[in-house]
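Please fill in the sequence for the structure shown.

STRUCTURE ENCODING:
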């Protein structure tokens, strides 16, 4: 699957997303540790388990294309994670730190939501019948996580931080 057609673009985007999910898998334990509120720690822990499955789903998407799973550097996720790290360094251990951690995590989720949205649209266009439902399953988890974090922020963490 080489060249510059939509198939090649799909594969490139898949590799970018694979890199991103693996980077997120490494960052989540740090975020869990930095979180002060127990329910935020739990939310990060739940999403860590989901992310492990998301990497496996991407493995399955690569397999369905007859490709081996590999990443290409995603500068966007590196930047988003680095910003989260900055927040931990400056605000870690404070109630505002938890609000900042949620904001950082939601930036990650939103990045993922755009990537999976695009991958799903391209999979549909390309008739990749095995890939599409796998990608959709992950997109639902990212959207759900985003919602859980919003609720947590608005109902508990932001009022406490203020
Ligand atoms: Fe993910
Ligand atoms: Fe990227
Ligand atoms: Fe996610």
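FILLED IN BY: designer on duty
SEQUENCE:
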């Amino acid at each position: 699957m080489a060249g510059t057609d939509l198939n090649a673009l799909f594969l490139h985007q898949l590799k970018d997303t694979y890199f991103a999910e693996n980077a997120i898998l490494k960052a989540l334990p740090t975020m869990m540790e930095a979180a002060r509120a127990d329910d935020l720690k739990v939310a990060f822990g739940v999403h860590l388990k989901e992310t492990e499955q998301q990497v496996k789903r991407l493995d399955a998407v690569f397999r369905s294309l007859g490709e081996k799973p590999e990443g290409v550097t995603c500068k966007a996720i590196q930047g988003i994670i680095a910003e989260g790290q900055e927040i931990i360094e400056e605000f870690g251990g404070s109630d505002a730190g938890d609000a900042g951690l949620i904001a950082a995590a939601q930036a990650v989720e939103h990045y993922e939501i755009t990537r999976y949205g695009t991958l799903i649209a391209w999979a549909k266009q390309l008739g990749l019948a095995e890939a599409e439902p796998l990608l959709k399953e992950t997109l639902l988890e990212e959207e759900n996580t985003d919602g859980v974090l919003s609720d947590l922020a608005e109902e508990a963490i932001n009022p406490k931080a203020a």
